[in-house]
């Protein structure tokens, strides 16, 4: 079992910044791939950013140049730095990993961006 706990969600004005954190614990061996997803009301969950075992990163087109995913390997922490936030970034953000033992999700952290 792997546990993922997100934090850092908040209410922020458009143009502002937030940094989300995801702490991974449990049966983790080595470095694991991590992703951030988000789900806005009435929308499907969508991939926002991912970081591979080798630290390659991938971003949704809608956040490229504004969001940065990174990790602290020693602490099993993954971050999502979000800059130049827009109202359309409002959503619940979820941390996830997909490893041989299965796909795991956190419970999410809410980000609200006012225009």
Keywords:
115 residues, mainly beta, seven-stranded mixed beta sheet, four-stranded antiparallel beta sheet, 11 strands, 0% helix, 56% strand, globular
Structure description:
Strand 5 (46-51) and strand 6 form a beta hairpin. The model has no long low-confidence stretch (mean pLDDT 95). It is globular and about 40 Å long. Strands 2, 4, 5, 6, 9, 10 and 11 form a 7-stranded mixed sheet that branches. Strands 1-3-8-7 form a 4-stranded antiparallel sheet, with no helix packed on it. The protein has strands spanning 2-7, 11-13, 18-26, 34-39, 46-51, 57-59, 67-72, 77-82, 91-99, 102-105, 109-114. 0% of the residues lie in helices and 56% in strands. It is mostly beta strands and 115 residues long. It is built from no helices and 11 strands.
- Give the overall silhouette: globular
What is the helical fraction, as a range of percent? under 10%
Give the class from helix and strand content and strand pairing.
mainly beta
Mean pLDDT: 95
Order of helices and strands: EEEEEEEEEEE
Give me the count of strands.
Answer: 11
- Poorly predicted regions are none
Biggest sheet details: 7 strands, mixed
Strand-residue fraction?
A: over 45%
How many angstroms does the end-to-end distance come to? Answer: 40 Å
Please tally the helical runs, counting DSSP H or I stretches of 4 or more residues.
0
Radius of gyration: 13 Å
